[in-house]
Design a protein that fits this description.
By secondary structure, the chain is α+β, with helices and mostly antiparallel strands. It is built from seven helices and seven strands; from the N terminus they run ααβααββααββαββ. The strands form two sheets. It has a four-stranded mixed β-sheet. A three-stranded antiparallel β-sheet has the order 1-3-2. Helix 7 links the parallel strand 5 and strand 6. Helix 2 packs across helix 5 and helix 6 packs antiparallel against helix 7.
Length: 180
């Protein structure tokens, strides 16, 4: 549905990246690796978003990081649209915040590529996850959003980003536990 309104796949990925989780930060090279696209195409879209005020940038060491501008007057509206379009608002509510020592959640597959689908594929990375409770929460979320949720669970010691960077996976980091 969103691809009808926004024809640029890179733009859709950036909207998903920054407006699903307002705390997400990323730099150009990490986006290139994550999206599997050229830095030039990503840079052009980032520049457009920054010029419009949708994202902010700041330096950290020798990297220019980008983050959603939560003070933009349309931030809440865009965030709400992206969450509702994907059904991810309910997944985060039901699953991410309640299942244990979760470290990261990636969205993969068609939805991560900005394509509308009835199946949400997620990759969970964490330790000591109560899998029975996880299944209960997934069932609740599926009923609420009327979509099927498929997941893969990795322990933090067995996960490598290479496991989810195959063609058609399009990994998109949805949520990450800040380690300090």
């Amino acid at each position: 549905m969103i691809e009808t309104l926004i024809s640029s796949k890179t733009r859709v990925k950036l909207l998903m990246k920054f407006f699903l989780n307002s705390q997400t930060t990323a730099y150009l090279r990490s986006l290139e690796e994550e999206f599997g696209e050229s830095t030039n195409g990503i840079r052009l879209e980032l520049n457009k978003f920054e010029k419009a005020g949708f994202i902010d940038s700041f330096s950290q060491g020798n990297k220019k990081l980008f983050k959603a501008n939560i003070k933009h007057p349309l931030f809440k509206d865009i965030n709400s649209i992206v969450l509702k379009l994907t059904g991810l608002d309910h997944i985060v509510d039901y699953i991410v915040q309640r299942i244990g020592d979760l470290h990261k959640v990636y969205l993969v597959g068609k939805l991560a590529n900005g394509q509308n689908t009835g199946i949400i594929d997620i990759v969970l990375i964490g330790d000591n996850i109560n899998q029975t409770f996880l299944l209960e929460q997934i069932k609740k979320a599926e009923k609420k959003i009327d979509k099927k949720i498929r997941y893969v669970l990795f322990g933090s010691d067995e996960f490598s980003i290479k496991k989810i960077t195959e063609p058609d996976m399009h990994p998109l980091l949805l949520w990450s536990k800040e380690k300090k």
